[in-house]
Amino acid sequence: MIELQHVFKSYGRNSRNILADISLRIGAGELVFISGPSGAGKSTLLKLIAGLEHASRGSVQVNGQRIDKLPARALPYLRRAVGIILQDTHLLFDRSVLQNVILPLIIAGQSPQSAAARARAALGKVGLLDKENFNPIELSGGEQQRLAIARAIVNRPAILIADEPTANLDKDSARLIMSVFRDFNQVGVTTLIATHDEALMAENATRILRVEPGRFFDLRAGEPA
Ligand SMILES: Nc1ncnc2c1ncn2[C@@H]1O[C@H](COP(=O)(O)OP(=O)(O)OP(=O)(O)O)[C@@H](O)[C@H]1O
User: Fold this and answer.
1) Residues 9, 216: contact at Cβ < 8 Å?
2) CATH ID of 2-220, from 3.40.1280.10, 3.50.50.60, 3.30.200.20, 3.40.50.300
3) pTM to 2 decimals?
4) Residue 149 CB less than 6 A away from ligand 1
């Protein structure tokens, strides 16, 4: 499903490697955490997999496609295959909760009617149906994260990627967010979550990819460290 082979990433020609010689495989339906100190390259790794950044060297395969070689015209396909929630959720505060979720469907060419029905189904899955007419600014931090999740999954991606989705949330909101991810993971969505939250990983970990400056660890639950 996701395979990186000898991937290097630096930003700019003469700058240092943020990621150096990373190889990994993530199978369909896995739930994987990406951990590591600030600045180590967690977001960079997620962006390479989502096709938002390009590897400087090495190959990145998603759903059997070399996305580092993907022509620009194939990018919409990748956008639909991978739902992404970045650290800054980029919610649109000039329209309603429902309209925020409808927008990616309209962009993908759906009729307004079927887009509204699917957007409502997505809001239902994250427990926000009763707030569809609110402005996102009126939502709590945890609710805004859930809205960002609804928007990311409304196109039914096979892969869901989230960058620090529980940062700045209290414990109960973080648990609720995690239960939403687990629900999607349980119906087969491959889920990658970058986090600093040790408690979250301890409670949910199946596999942790730990990114440190110059080092990389693939820690599978149940395997000796
Ligand atoms: N677009 C960019 N241009 C130049 N340097 C960048 C860019 N994006 C990230 N970097 C640098 O790459 C390094 C890794 O950043 P990244 O955001 O991947 O780390 P991170 O592990 O996700 O950090 P954090 O936990 O603080 O979010 C940092 O030194 C950062 O300054």
Assistant:
1) no
2) 3.40.50.300
3) 0.91
4) no
